[in-house]
Amino acid sequence: MLNPNLDQVQLNQEEYARYSRHIILPEVGLEGQKRLKAASVLCVGTGGLGSPLLLYLAAAGIGRIGIVDFDIVDSSNLQRQVIHGTSWVGKPKIESAKTRIQEINPNCQVDLYETRLSSENALEIIEPYDIVVDGTDNFPTRYLVNDACVLLNKPNVYGSIFRFEGQATVFNYQEGPNYRDLFPEPPPPGMVPSCAEGGVLGILPGIIGVIQATETVKIILGQGNTLSGRLLLYNALDMTFRELKLRPNPERPVIEELVDYEQFCGITQAKEEEAKRQKEMQEINVQELKQLLDSGVQDFVLLDVRNPNEYDIAKIPGSVLVPLPEIEKGPGVEQVKELLNGHRLIAHCKMGGRSAKALAILKDAGIEGTNVKGGITAWSREVDSSVPEY
After folding, report:
1. DSSP assignment string, 33-47
2. Rounded-to-integer distance, Cα 186 and Cα 265, Å
3. Where does residue 309 rank: exposed (0-12), middle (13-18), buried (19+ CB within 10 A)?
4. What separation in angstroms does the CA of 290 have from each of 108, 284, 336, 379?
């Protein structure tokens, strides 16, 4: 429970009316609403989780909200990032979020940090706030947020989403566990697909983000039982919630400083390996592929390694689908061998990453190939805009 000095916190007449449904709750009351007004919350990210989270924190009457994000609004965000609108496409997310927050509650102070959170700036940015809410979607930033909260003794309200499943908990609160108790070591790079690759039900982050907002408000009010020590798992397809117990690990190494989290999560090494692999791998751009297709030559197979549902959305004429999972499992390798029948291989995916991975597997099986740089996304942007970009 936070213990602000409420003597200097007053509500004006408009705020009494605005928060009346809160104030009549015995668990909130006038003192609780003053606590919300006196509180400060930092939200890292204004994406799928940050969007509903920020909307409801502002509506609840949080007095000061900080937002950390350096991205711009893209049309593909609008399926789930409900704080942003079509008119904001191409503009900074934090500006979009601030405008919407102030429409909801002009009494809320909004601090903007248009930067990537890093080991160099995290402590300085987080230090002024009572609570940090993690709305990020990558492991390096999650470990960074966690470790900074541990060093500064700040509660860390956590959420994550993927496809139809989400999870939420509260870390580093009242001597409870932190993120490193849940994930002592990060998974290998590429092991967990991003939402851009794996997809996400647009409604899912709304559920998890609202849970994060609820936990944040409960911490400020000092009411109810938080999710500290409990990992809440939600499955939208089955509409089920279940819990796992979390406990601090007494053998967990003490967090003494912030580190290079890209290196800690293997991202730096993976980028170096990818750069080396790309240097060794033959590539063509989409203009060169277009020339090949237009020339009418029949000496190559254009392999698409995306998933079938992606192939249904958009395809390059003449491409043949063999999904990467089938290549990884083995049967797909034999299928590619049959398709080639002496022809050379050119492979593509959405942006070039999965096809590079497929070609590396095929190379180990004795099949050389060429990767299409930028994949079908580049094809849509640079060659044929009638092919949908997703």
Report:
1. HHHHHH-EEEEE--S
2. 6
3. exposed
4. 53, 10, 22, 9
Express the helix, strand and coil content of the chain in percent, nearest 5 each.
Answer: 45, 20, 40
Render pLDDT for 349-384 as a digit per residue (tens, 0 to 9): 999 989 999 999 999 999 999 999 999 999 999 999
E strand or H helix that includes residue 170: strand 165-171
Strand partners, 200: 163
Please indicate whether residue 349 is annotated as part of the active site: yes
- Measured in whole angstroms, how far is the alpha carbon of residue 114 from the centre of its chain? 17
Residue 361 has φ and ψ, to the nearest 5°, of -65, -45
- Give kind and range of the element (H or E) at residue 340: helix 331-340
Give the count of alpha carbons within 13 A of 352, CB side only.
19
Task: Scan for tokens 């022809």, then name that residue.
Answer: 343
Stretch 214-241: mean pLDDT:
98
252-285 pLDDT per residue, tens:
889 999 999 999 998 887 777 766 766 778 999 9
Which one of 43, 108, 265, 349 is the catalytic residue? 349
Q: What is the pLDDT of residue 278?
A: 66
From 43, 149, 195, 265, the catalytic residue? 195
Closest to 262 measured CA to CA, from 68, 120, 123, 50: 120
**Residues 6 or more apart whose Cβ sits within 8 Å of residue 10:** 34
pLDDT at 197: 72
Beta-carbon contacts of residue 32 (< 8 Å; ≥ 6 apart):
22, 23, 25, 221, 223
Beta strands 40-44 and 64-68 are parallel
The pLDDT tens digits for 69-114 are: 999 999 999 999 999 999 999 999 999 999 999 999 999 999 999 9
The predicted model scores a pTM of 0.82
Mean of pLDDT values over 185-198 = 76
Contact indicator for 40, 64 with CB cutoff of 8 Å: yes
Task: Return the residue matching tokens 């003449």.
Answer: 318
Are residues 295 and 318 in contact, defined by beta-carbon separation less than 8 angstroms?
no
Mean pLDDT is lowest, of 3-17, 25-39, 161-175, 212-226, for: 3-17
